What we know:
The protein has 8 helices and 4 strands. With 186 residues, it is mostly helical.
Amino acid sequence: VDWYNGGMEHTTLHLLYSRFWHKFLYDLKLVPTSEPYKKRTSHGHILAEGGGKMSKSKPETIIDPASITERFGADTLRVYEMFMGPFRQAIPWSEDSLSGPRRFIERVWKIKEKISGLGSSALMHQTIKKVSEDIETLGFNTAVSTLMIWVNALEKQERVSKEEFETLLKLLAPFAPHVTEELWQG
């Protein structure tokens, strides 16, 4: 396995069992490596509103993604989850904070009306570099933040080139695939 990623509590037993069995198989010379994973990471928990742990025994603490998707859209939920905070930290859920990613997606949609001409900018290339690096290091929250900064700059421009808009959609696609696909086709 190249990369094992899981929740903090979930990962512990999986790693214990998989490492035990893999080391057993390694000692028997049945597998070529002493460790079962090249890379291991754990993601933080999304906590209930107020910071407590979500629990099946306390249904009021559980967030229903279907109702969030129905009200705000799947892409808003995805962008919010990526923007909430650092990937490895536990972060409390806040339904009030969903409006920010929703407005961000609406702003991206409106930029389409400003497409005119060709060209790129230094900020576009800086954004490509930063978002690419952030995705590689699981800095999804800072990748989204960088895209928001660029959208602010694009909104201030009188015109946005086709290359700038298409680049924005490519960079945003991992976070908001439905909206970006719709804008790409349109």
